[in-house]
Amino acid sequence: MPTSTADSARAERGWVRRDAAPRTADSLGAALAHEIRNPLTALIHSLTLLQSRLRPTDSEAELMDVVVDEARRLARMVDGVLQVSRPARDRAPVALEEVTTALVGLLGHREGGRDTAGVAVSAEADLPRVTGEPDRLRQLLWNLLRNAVEAAGPGGRVDVRLRSLREGEREGVLVEVSDSGPGIPPERRERVFDAFETTKPRGTGLGLAIAREVAETHGGRIELADSRLGGARVALWLPQG
Asked: pLDDT, tens digit, for every residue of 164-201?
């Protein structure tokens, strides 16, 4: 315990430094991600250009595919770091059912409709809007939908339900995304929200980590459970204001 004014001042400065350390680390991570992204993008472009111009043997072509796939995975990781570390922006009312429906359509266009043929979206009438950063909430929902579609696989099912739900003194919206995939064992459900923890062979392990970070900075929560479709169910709750 500080015993003098000088000790108190030093202790206070020490607390400031410790509190600032995570922010400094975030800033450094963002700066490194920016520096890495440009040459990495150039590398991917060069490799795909070489693939189209050269006539590699089957084994050489397979090796080039591996390099390109890994470079793209690194690029997704860099994008994930940038998403987490970017400064907060102005908040506005967001209609989650409208954003969800639009994202399902976008997923369908990405693969000619094959990705979303088994996706069903239902929303309670007159849902309240939540107040938040529109871009970050959009990214959060995109991560949840994409994960569910990938987990369900070709011919699988994804069920998205939105309804109002009061938690304590706060009104909010509950978004439940269920899939018919293999599911996630109970002992891994908490770990999958950790950065770089993934259940997919080529996953970055950042999708759910970003989802939890965005949910919590908006005063909400996100949880994993079993789905009635046989796979996983992600429950996202966000407060109205």
From this structure: 999 888 899 999 999 999 888 888 777 777 765 565 55
Start-end ranges of CATH 1.10.287.130 in the chain?
Answer: 5-85
Start-to-end CA distance of the chain, whole Å, equals: 40
| The pair of three-digit structure tokens given for residue 109, joined into one six-digit string | 């266009």
| Phi, psi (deg, nearest 5) at residue 159 | -120, 120
The tokens describing 128, both together, are 């309240």
Asked if 117 and 79 touch (Cβ cutoff 8 Å), the reply is no
Under CATH, which architecture does the 5-85 domain have? Orthogonal Bundle (1.10)
Cβ–Cβ under 8 Å, residues 87 and 26: no
Indicate where the chain has its CATH 3.30.565.10 domain(s).
92-239
Report DSSP letters for 121-169, one per residue. EEE-TTPPPEEE-HHHHHHHHHHHHHHHHHHH-TT--EEEEEEEEEETT
Residue 54, burial from CB neighbour count under 10 angstroms (0-12, 13-18, 19+):
exposed
Write down the CATH number for the domain with range 92-239: 3.30.565.10
Phi, psi of 77 (to 5 degrees): -65, -45
In DSSP terms, 94 is beta-bridged to 130
Closest CA to 176 of 233, 94, 116, 230: 233
pTM listed for this prediction: 0.64
Q: Shortest CA distance to 129 belongs to which of 96, 102, 174, 98?
A: 96
Choose the most confident range, by mean pLDDT, from 47-61, 75-89, 92-106.
92-106
